[in-house]
Amino acid sequence: MIVNLRYISAGVLVVIIALFYFMHQSNEASAERLKQAEIAHQQKLEQEKIVIKREQEEARKLADKERREQASYGSPSASNKVVSEFNACRSSAISAKSQLAGTQYKTKVIMDSTDGYIVRICTNDGSVLITCDASNGEMITSKSSICSLD
Q1: What pLDDT score was predicted for residue 76?
Q2: How far is CA 114 from CA 8, 16, 25, 44, in A?
Q3: H or E segment and range at residue 19
Q4: Domain-by-domain residue ranges, the chain?
Q5: DSSP labels, 30-92
Q6: Parallel, antiparallel, or unpaired: how do β-strands 107-112 and 116-123 relate?
Q7: Which of 14, 85, 141, 145 lies 20 to 30 A from 69 at CA?
Q8: How far is C-alpha 85 from the geometric centre of its chain's CA atoms?
C-alpha cells in the first residue's frame, strides 16, 4: 500500500509540474502577444499623429488662403475681437452654424483643431467669418462683402 501511495504521489507531482510548465509556456506566449499588440498600438498612434498633423496643416493652409482671398477683396467691412475661452468660443461658433442648418445660408468649417476653429457663414450681403484662436484666447468675428466657400 505504501508503494502504491509513493507512485500515486510521484504521479501527482509529475502532473503538477507539467501543469506549471504549460502555464508558464502559456504566460510567455501571452506576454509576447501583448508586446506585439503594444507595438502595433504605438505604430497606429504614430500614424494617427501624422494624419492629424497633416489635417491641421491643410486646415492652416486653407485658413491662410481664406485670409489672402479676404485681403484681395479688400478688408472686411467690420471686425470684432473679443477675449474668449477657446471651448466657449468654439461652442458659440458651432451653435451659430447649427442654427443655420437646413436654411438657404451656406456654412463651412474651415479649421477644426485644438489650435483653432474657423467657420464661414454666408449671409444675404456677404459672409461672417468666426475665428476661435486657442493660443490667444480670442474670438474674432469678421464680416465680408463676399462669400466664397470653395
Answers
A1: 47
A2: 69, 57, 46, 20
A3: helix 2-72
A4: 2-144
A5: HHHHHHHHHHHHHHHHHHHHHHHHHHHHHHHHHHHHHHHHHHHT-S-SEEEEEE--HHHHHHH
A6: antiparallel
A7: 85
A8: 19
What's the one-letter identity of residue 138? Answer: E
Q: CA 99 to CA 37: how far, in whole Å?
A: 44
Decide if 139 contacts 82 (C-beta within 8 A): yes
142, containing H or E segment: strand 138-144
Cβ neighbours, 10 Å, residue 118: 23
Three-state secondary-structure class, residue 21: helix
Give me the residues paired with residue 108 across strands.
120
Query: Which value, to the nearest 10 degrees, does the dihedral of the CA atoms of residues 11, 14, 19, 21 take?
Result: -170
Query: 56 CB contacts (<8 Å, ≥6 apart)?
Result: 113, 115
Q: How far apart are CA 98 and CA 94, in angstroms?
A: 6
pTM above 0.85, yes or no: no
Instruction: Provide the residue type at 111 as one letter.
Output: M
Sign of torsion, CA 65 69 74 80?
Answer: negative
